From TrEMBL:
Domain Enoyl-CoA hydratase/isomerase per the UniProt entry, residue ranges: 20-353
A Pfam family recorded for this sequence: ECH_2
Stored CDD domains: crotonase-like
InterPro entries from the UniProt entry: ClpP/crotonase-like_dom_sf (IPR029045), ECH_dom (IPR045004), HIBYL-CoA-H (IPR032259)
Protein name in UniProt: Enoyl-CoA hydratase/isomerase family protein
Key words, A-Z: Hydrolase
Length: 368
């Protein structure tokens, strides 16, 4: 049985044999997630986990004819900006429901294949990192660039980045560095590289199988795997681990200042474009998350994102200011407060980690 795709829908779904196929259908917006998309993804996954005729799920992004592909560029940050300034309660719903969806995917009882072709950032990572099969292609660009907009790597980012080797997690979280296929696999954020053009063949092969199991899916993917591309991050690992082991964002900055090499200075320049306050919050987030379960991390991130919009409400929010500079006014000149890393204090960071809810009333209290 197959449903007829409706081009007016932001999420398309169909059955191909025993495969449930989901397409994020918001190509002009790089398939960025809206609240409606989060709700439809959740509905489909809940429906299919109890459907005896569906063995596995594959999630892809709608194609952009004539343009580079995009799996999912993240959450709808324009909506965040508008909702924050309007006091729209749907902003709260967005993050609660998105993080619950992220947890559902990590805990999904059936194979879940994330086809991370093209841009996969922020919320796109949130709906792919919990996949049993994380596929990247020659077009893949993976990142958690939230510090660019005065936010932090959410959607479970604290949990999955903190589990990267050494201090890669801190580096990726603070800089928003974009990973191509080989480096994504090396960092443990993807499993296998396939040619982008192989997707139709993969779907047909899976749809033709009488049963889909984790092993049969892995075999089908390996049969079509691309020749491994070359990574570039391995050469920088000693430098990353040395500099990003710093006890604070100020210590990391000073370590980079003292290193005259080109890579260190380029990294320092990148950090100086981010919100100093939110980099300090992010560093604390990643380090706390190392000793947390995914559910605990998502509850912490739900606290953090509430504070991003409420500790300094409206235009005073670092996140609102960051989105304004990037996506609204597009002047790319955010006015961060404080403006410099040296001005960030522990007293500024600490309130982000105080939960605004008692444990029993937390919006994600049900996650286990």
């Amino acid at each position: 049985m197959s449903t007829t795709p409706n081009p007016d829908l932001q999420v398309l779904s169909e059955r191909r044999g025993r495969l449930g196929l989901i397409t994020l259908n918001r190509a002009p917006a790089l398939n960025a997630l809206s609240l409606g998309m989060i709700r439809e993804l959740t509905r489909l996954l809940r429906q299919w986990e109890n459907d005896d005729h569906i063995d596995a799920v594959l999630v892809q992004g709608a194609a952009r004819p004539g343009k580079a592909p995009a799996f999912c560029a993240g959450g709808d940050i324009r909506f965040f900006h508008q909702a924050a300034l309007a006091g729209d309660s749907k902003l709260e719903d967005f993050f609660t429901e998105e993080y619950a969806l992220n947890h559902l995917i990590h805990d999904y009882p059936k194979p879940y294949i994330a086809w991370m072709d093209g841009i996969c950032m922020g919320g796109g990572m949130g709906i792919s990192q919990g996949a049993s099969h994380r596929v990247v292609t020659e077009h893949s660009k993976l990142a958690m660039p939230e510090t660019h907009i005065g936010l932090f790597p959410d959607v479970g980012g604290g949990w999955f980045l903190s589990r990267c080797a050494g201090h890669l997690g801190e580096y990726l979280a603070l800089t928003g560095h974009v990973l191509k296929a080989a480096d994504a696999i090396a960092c443990g954020l993807a499993d296998i590289e396939l040619p982008s053009a192989a997707l139709p063949d993969v779907i047909e092969a899976l749809a033709a199988m009488p049963w889909l199991t984790p092993q049969s899916i892995s075999d089908a993917l390996r049969q079509r795997a691309a020749t491994a591309s070359a990574g570039s991050l391995a050469a920088q690992r000693p430098d990353i681990d040395r500099h990003f082991a710093g006890a604070s964002i100020h210590a990391i900055e000073q370590s980079l200042v003292a290193d005259a090499c080109e890579w260190a200075q380029a990294t320092l320049t990148a950090l100086h474009k981010q919100s100093p306050l939110m980099m300090a919050v992010t560093l604390e987030q990643v380090r706390r998350a190392r000793s947390m379960t995914l559910a605990e991390d998502l509850r912490m991130e739900r606290d953090l994102v509430r504070h991003c919009f409420q500790l300094r409400p409206g235009l005073a929010s670092e996140t609102v200011e960051g989105i304004r500079a990037l996506a609204v006014d597009k002047d790319h000149s955010p006015r961060w407060s404080p403006a410099n890393i040296a001005e960030v204090t522990t007293e500024m960071v600490a309130p982000f980690f105080d939960s605004p809810w008692p444990a029993w009333a937390h919006p994600l209290a049900h996650l286990r």
